[in-house]
């Protein structure tokens, strides 16, 4: 199966501190790849290198076929990104946010109009399309931000702690959206510190202190570490 992310010995240092220490892995097309670790483990720093907003110190990596060192702008055009804070503008309406990001992604006015209508209908936002995003519940902001990240049909979507702060029901609904997107061939790269969410991924890597300490399917990792859950796996790794 086609590899859409390839990483070899990727490293990021801040002075004498090594935030990401020579990590290597690959991600396949249409895969839901979980990038797990406690806060401060280095997963967000690694993601920032992959999406082209932080320059690596050393190593090699390609994303959607583009080199992270020399083709960062091309990477940005071929991926979607949803940050922890969803990156929507509270003082714009739902429609205005979609239109704004459609322009950022380089879509034509005609395409933006079509996409806006489709997205609003798919999310069931017809009654509040002209409401300010700041007035929406957190769960709706989350779903909208994810959909906006898909406006330009990217090959890969990077999700950085996308379910932080939302209730369990909304988290489950969000993962249903992730499954649907992956089934359509889009690769999902998701960071999370919710270990139960690792069970939803095709494969997961677990970072500890800037290093990838384990990488496999959830089933194989639980078997390897004689654990009942991914949380147990993580605790064993964290304890060394």
From TrEMBL:
Stored Gene3D superfamilies: P-loop containing nucleotide triphosphate hydrolases (3.40.50.300)
Membrane topology recorded in Swiss-Prot or TrEMBL: Multi-pass membrane protein
InterPro entries: AAA+_ATPase (IPR003593), ABC_transporter-like_ATP-bd (IPR003439), P-loop_NTPase (IPR027417)
Chief location of this protein within or outside the cell: membrane
Name of one Pfam family that matches: ABC_tran
UniProt keyword list: ATP-binding, Membrane, Nucleotide-binding, Transmembrane, Transmembrane helix, Transport
Cell compartments where the protein resides: Membrane
Domain ABC transporter: 5-234
PANTHER family referenced in this protein's UniProt entry, alphabetically: ABC TRANSPORTER G FAMILY MEMBER 20 ISOFORM X1 (PTHR43038:SF3), ATP-BINDING CASSETTE, SUB-FAMILY H, MEMBER 1 (PTHR43038)
Any single GO CC term annotated in Swiss-Prot or TrEMBL for this entry: membrane
Alphabetical list of PROSITE patterns matching this protein: ABC_TRANSPORTER_2
GO MF terms, alphabetically ordered: ATP binding; ATP hydrolysis activity
Protein name: ABC transporter domain-containing protein
Originating species: Yeosuana aromativorans
Record bears the keyword Cytoplasm: no
């Amino acid at each position: 199966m086609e590899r859409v992310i390839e990483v070899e010995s990727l490293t990021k240092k801040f002075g004498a501190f090594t935030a990401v220490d020579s990590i290597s892995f690959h991600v396949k097309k249409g895969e839901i790849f979980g990038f797990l670790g406690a806060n401060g483990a280095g997963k967000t720093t690694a993601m920032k290198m992959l999406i082209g907003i932080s320059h690596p110190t050393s190593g090699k990596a390609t994303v959607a076929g583009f080199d992270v060192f020399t083709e960062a702008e091309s990477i940005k055009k071929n991926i979607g990104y949803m940050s922890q804070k969803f990156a929507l503008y509270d003082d714009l309406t739902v429609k205005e946010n979609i239109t704004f990001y459609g322009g950022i992604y380089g879509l034509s006015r005609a395409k933006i109009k079509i996409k806006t209508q489709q997205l609003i209908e798919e999310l069931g936002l017809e009654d509040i399309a002209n409401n300010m995003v700041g007035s929406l519940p957190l769960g709706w902001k989350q779903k909208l931000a994810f959909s906006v990240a898909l406006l330009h049909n990217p090959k890969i979507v990077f999700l950085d702690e996308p379910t932080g702060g939302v209730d369990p029901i909304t988290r489950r609904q969000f993962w249903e959206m992730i499954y649907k997107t992956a089934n359509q061939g889009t690769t999902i790269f998701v960071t999370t510190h919710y270990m139960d969410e690792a069970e939803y991924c095709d494969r997961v890597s677990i970072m500890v202190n800037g290093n990838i300490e384990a990488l496999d399917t959830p089933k194989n990792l639980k078997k390897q570490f004689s654990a009942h859950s991914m949380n147990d796996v993580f605790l064993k790794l964290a304890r060394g």
